[in-house]
Amino acid sequence: MRNTTHSPFLLVGGGVLATLIIVFLLRVAVQPHPNHIHYHADMAVFIDGKQVDFSGPKFMEDVSNCAANPEEMTARQRVHLHEQNGSSVHVHASGVTWSHFFSNLGWNITPQVVVTDTNTLYTNKPVRFLLNGSEVRTPMNDTIGDEDQLVISIGDAPVSEVQQWARSLERGAHEANGSSDPASCGSSGHAELTFKERAVRALWF
């Protein structure tokens, strides 16, 4: 008569293997996209008290563009405007500054000189920068913060008037943070990882 009693070692080994497989599959399922960044800020530029309109097509990023990882992003994919909204800044990478953003629009802004996308040059007008309600010398080299508001005045308006403009502007960044990004490959802002990519990351991370 054949002995069908299983070895305790086989039972324990089988249990351990099953546990490892379950843990691995769970890690595969929950792998996040690497370096996912997606948040918004608000901005406005005034010249002699008149707000500049950045809602035109030349300032917009094509919503069909999508980069699967940050290393493949172009400068305009890292920070941009889209959907004809000329005040809601979309940030998709770390370390993006206000200078990067305005460069993508074709503008160069310093405390002394302003050059617009049409090569209009302003050298004899005061330039004021209001970041989150406070005047700063220049925020151009500052990293754009989540839900920041930057208001730039080119002209003789006093800081009190610029602050009044800032308070009257719509703050859309908070609402935008809660919605999907039309320039993304899905609500996360990046293409979904394949099963193979998730499996590799599950083994190494």
Q: What does this entry look like structurally?
A:
Strand 3 and strand 4 form a beta hairpin. The protein has helices at 8-29, 75-78, 98-104, 159-168, 173-177, 195-204; strands spanning 39-47, 50-51, 79-80, 88-91, 108-109, 114-115, 121-122, 127-131, 134-136, 149-154. 28% of the residues lie in helices and 18% in strands. It has six helices and ten strands; from the N terminus they run αββαββαββββββααα. The chain has two domains: 13-33 and 191-204, no CATH class; 39-177, no CATH class. The longest helix is centred in the N-terminal third of the chain and has 22 residues, at 8-29. The chain is of the alpha+beta class and 205 residues long. Helix 1 (8-29) packs across helix 6. Strands 1, 2, 3, 4, 8, 9 and 10 form a seven-stranded mixed beta sheet that branches. Strands 5-6-7 form a three-stranded antiparallel beta sheet. The radius of gyration is 25 Å and the shape is elongated.
